[in-house]
From TrEMBL:
Coiled coil: none annotated. Belongs to the short-chain dehydrogenases/reductases (SDR) family. Keywords: Oxidoreductase. One of its GO terms (molecular function) is oxidoreductase activity. This is SDR family NAD(P)-dependent oxidoreductase. It comes from Saccharopolyspora elongata. It holds the Pfam family adh_short.
Length: 283
């Protein structure tokens, strides 16, 4: 059955691949882009079922009107793929507060505002599927990506909570955490904070050089990611959290084990803080 999608960030990368797969499957797709050139290219994919809308997620006041315009063109949004965002690379100490604010303005606040714009309609119609594209960095961490991974951890937590609240209305929510895909994320789409502290050279210079050298060479196939989204859309019981890519599975599993190792090693201390007089747990 044909559905109406809204996909943010369809100029390149995963957003474009997901949109192409959705169009090929017969769906209608409203996609957001940031330039007129990208808008024309996107609508040329399918003049009947593809519509492009200019939107920068940092412009919060434009998000709701853009969603309303998309619905006026193609009908009520039944599937949201909140994909738009960007990465900031830099050590914690060398990245500025302005860097942090803009990273969250786009990746978190812009994404949440987009979900808020489509959710009331889905709730009232008692149906819909919200996909939030996070990252394997929303489950584990790597040096030099503190602010980016912080934004993705925030989205994972928000999405998990949202899923628990709206399942009663027939609205499905899935946080999709990709690994490294053959996109330009680590190339021109990655903002790099300038280096200024020599103490980090030995740790971080090789990491930055490797990311630059391997940009666009990830193991993940964007078209297969698009197919995966359609598979999840058709699933009887889709997951709230899903990883895309064998690298994501390997690295997230290892990262979660490091956390579990800390919990296990300090279990006695953890339990020691309970009141000797008993009490009530939150759940």
């Amino acid at each position: 059955m044909s559905k109406t999608f809204l996909i943010t960030g369809v100029s390149t990368g995963l957003g474009l691949a997901i949109a192409r797969r959705a169009l090929a499957a017969g769906h209608r797709v409203a996609g957001t882009v940031r330039t007129e050139q990208h808008a024309a290219a996107f609508q040329a994919l399918d003049p009947d079922r593809a519509r492009a809308f200019i939107l920068d997620l940092s412009d919060a006041d434009r998000i709701d009107p853009t969603v309303r315009a998309a619905e006026a063109e193609l009908g009520p949004i039944e599937v949201l793929v909140a994909n738009a965002g960007y990465g900031l690379e830099g050590t914690f100490e060398e990245s500025s507060m302005a860097d942090l604010r803009h990273q969250f303005e786009v990746n978190v606040f812009g994404t949440v505002a987009t979900v808020k714009a489509v959710l009331p309609g889905m709730r009232e119609r008692r149906g819909g599927h919200i996909f939030v594209i996070t990252s394997m960095g929303g489950h584990t961490t790597f040096p030099g990506l503190a602010f980016y991974e912080g934004s993705k951890h925030a989205l994972e937590g928000i999405t998990d909570t949202l899923a628990q609240e709206v399942t009663q209305f027939g609205v499905r929510v899935t946080a999709v955490a990709p690994g490294a895909f053959k996109t330009d994320w680590a190339g021109r789409s990655l903002v790099r904070a300038p280096r200024s502290i020599a103490d980090y050279d030995a740790l971080f210079d090789p990491i930055r050089a490797r990311r630059q050298a391997l940009a666009g060479q990830g193991i993940g196939d964007p078209d297969r990611a698009g197919d995966a989204i359609l598979t999840l859309l058709d699933a009887e019981k889709p997951p709230v959290h899903v990883l895309l890519g064998s690298d994501a599975l390997r690295l997230v599993t290892a990262g979660r084990q490091r956390v579990q190792d800390d919990f296990d090693a300090w279990e006695e201390l953890t339990r020691s803080t309970d009141s000797t007089e008993g009490g009530v747990t939150v759940a």
